[in-house]
Structure formats: structure tokens, C-alpha cells
Amino acid sequence: MDGKKHIVDKFGRVHDYLRISLTERCNLRCFYCMPEEGIQLRDKAEFMTAEETLEIAKTFISMGVKKIRLTGGEPLIKRNAEMIIKALGQLPIELTLTTNAVVVDRYIDVMKEAGIKSLNVSLDSLKEERFNDISRRGYFTRIFDNIALLLDQGFDLKINVVLIRGVNDDEIIDFIEWTRDTALSVRFIEFMPFDGNQWNWDKKVSYNEILSAVESKFGDQFSKIEGKPNDTSRNFKLNGAKGSFGIISTVTNPFCDTCNRIRLTADGKIKNCLFSQSETDLLTAHRNGQPIEPIIREVMLSKEKERGGNGQFDDEMVKSMKNRSMTTIGG
Ligand code: SAM
Ligand code: SF4
Question: Does the beta carbon of 100 sit less than 6 angstroms from any atom of ligand 2?
Fold first, then answer.
């Protein structure tokens, strides 16, 4: 440890990874994440300005945060995203982002200047028509070209694929085949329940199912990659492949034991867990000149052991759960 008073919860988990949502808005409308009409517009004053985002980020860094991920909504459509990325790039952290890659080509130089080395890009299908249906827009080709551009420019890429039964679960093998000759990491994510996203238990594709599809196709022609303690995915590689693949099983097999994440929403609320049903307003406190460090410590001390204290996910539990959609929390 480096002498800072780290953010520790009552289970001894050290929280050194902050995910900041830059905006709730998005240029796609993935049906599992965003309503077709978009999210309800709110007064601009309710959201953090670029300066406030930086000031609050600096407080977290002074408390031991070592990694910041920018997310959203789509972080790269935030006005001032360029300024925020460059300024965060000056700070002593690993900076990264999660994007749908629609406009990422405009940020190549900015990201390099900020020292960003790796990105997560979401792509739920390798079939143009299907992807455009899922995202309710027509950007497949642009995204695919931008993925090639990012690889060409030397960025490490993780491709996030949310698997949903009857929608794209027939593409597991195609995605893995992509990693044979392309040096990227595909990560299959179990479909997670949020307010109004039509989740039900049968629509998620579980860790075990994904692994048995892989085993029946590839037999022993793949192996497990040993992970790091805070990894959220369990990772594998086809023998001789340039890339790898992994499974993020938040629903059936969560990784709460080693969770080191804190979330800050675009309107300046801190959430101690993706599934926590409560959130605490840091932005108002910050605007009132109140120190936010004690608030952060208190919120993190109240973090539940697993899944925001919601227990096992099932259809009944999900019906009673109140939680914002991923786009307003920041995925
Ligand atoms: N717009 C950016 C993107 O799509 O990469 C960043 C924000 S998005 C909310 C972050 C990640 O959350 C994406 O990979 C997306 O697929 C994932 N996501 C959104 N809703 C989800 C859900 N219900 N279950 C699982 N993953 C979800
Ligand atoms: Fe936008 Fe990302 Fe949500 Fe899709 S998953 S609607 S790209 S925020």
C-alpha cells in the first residue's frame, strides 16, 4: 500500500477502481439497456460539469483510487469528453473507457495523448442486420471499421457481448473463431436485470451453458488463462489463437468477493454496487462546499456482501427490485 487511507468496506475489500458515467445519453438504443425513445431529458444543471467531474475524481484518487473507467451512456458523445479525457490522463491513474465505438475514430489522438492503452467496445452481434436491430440504429459497419482502426492503432481491445437467448446465443462460436486470427478478447456477459429491460431468468445464457457450447465445439482445443484477483471474467484461449475469450457471469456466478468497484453516475451520485438500490448525492455536497471524503467512506462501508444485498436473482426478486437502467448507472 502507498500510505493513503484506502476506501475499505466492512468485508475488508479495498476499492481502488472508479467507474464514472459521463452522460446518460447515447447514440444507440440497445433494447436491453435503453428505451426506444431514449431517456427522459433532464436539466443540464443536474449533471456534473467537466470541472466537477475532475474535482470529484481527484478526491477519489487522493483516497487510493488507481484506475478510472469512463462509461455511460456513451461517454464519447459527452460535450467536453476530450477535455475530461486529457485532464484525467494527467493524473496518476490507469485511464480506460467503455464505448460503443460509433465515434471513437475522432478520439484516437486524444486517447493516445491521455495514455489510454486499452478499451472495452460493445458489439452484440457479428451480423449487420441483427446488430442494427438490437441497437435500433444503423452503425454496424462504422463500428466494425472502428474496431479495425483501434487494433491497427495498437489499442488492446475487449469486446463485450451481452448474450440473450433467442437473440444472439447462436453466435458464441463465431465470436470465438474471430479470436483465432485477431488479437482481441471477446467477453460474453450474462444479460442482467434492470428496470424495464424485459429480463427474465430464461433469457440469460449462463456461464455453464456457454462453456458447454465451447466444449462441444472445440473439445480440448482450448485452455483456461489464470486470472488476476479482481478479474470479473473467467478467461480462455483457443490453442494457437491470437486473441482470447472470457465469460462474465454476474447473474449465475458473481465475483462479489473481490469487488473493488465504485460507481459515480453522470448526475454525481455514488453507488457502492451495480445492483444497489440506493445511491448518495456527492454532487450536491460538493457544490455546497461540504467535504465529500467522509460521505464516500460511509457509503462504501455500507456496501452489501453480494449483489447489492438483493439475494439470488430470480423472476420474483427482479420484479421487486428497483434499479436504474445500465445507461443511467453507467455500465
Ligand atoms: N455505451 C457504452 C457501451 O455500450 O459500451 C458504455 C455504456 S454500456 C451501459 C456498458 C456495458 O453495459 C455494455 O457492454 C453493455 O452491453 C452493457 N449492458 C447494458 N445493459 C446490460 C444488461 N442489461 N445486461 C448486461 N450488460 C448490459
Ligand atoms: Fe448505448 Fe451502451 Fe446502452 Fe447500447 S449498451 S444503449 S451503446 S449505453
Answer: yes
216: in domain: yes
Flag whether pLDDT at 201 surpasses 80: no
Output the pLDDT for position 324: 57
Cell numbers placing 79: 460535450
Residue 270 lies in a domain: yes
Sequence-distant (≥ 6) Cβ neighbours of residue 37 within 8 angstroms: none
Evaluate whether residue 193 is within a structural domain: yes
pLDDT band at 318 (very low <50, low <70, confident <90, very high): low
State which of 71, 125, 135 you would mutate to test the pocket of ligand 2, scoring each by most atoms of that ligand within 8 A of its C-beta: 135
C-alpha of residue 39 to centroid of ligand 2, in Å: 11
Asked if residue 11 is part of any domain, the answer here is no
CATH of the domain at 129: 3.20.20.70
| Residues spanned by the domain of 56 | 17-325
Taking the complete model, does pTM exceed 0.85, yes or no?
A: yes
Contact 157, 150 (CB under 8 A): yes
- 41: burial class by Cβ within 10 Å (0-12, 13-18, 19+)? exposed
Domain count for the chain: 1
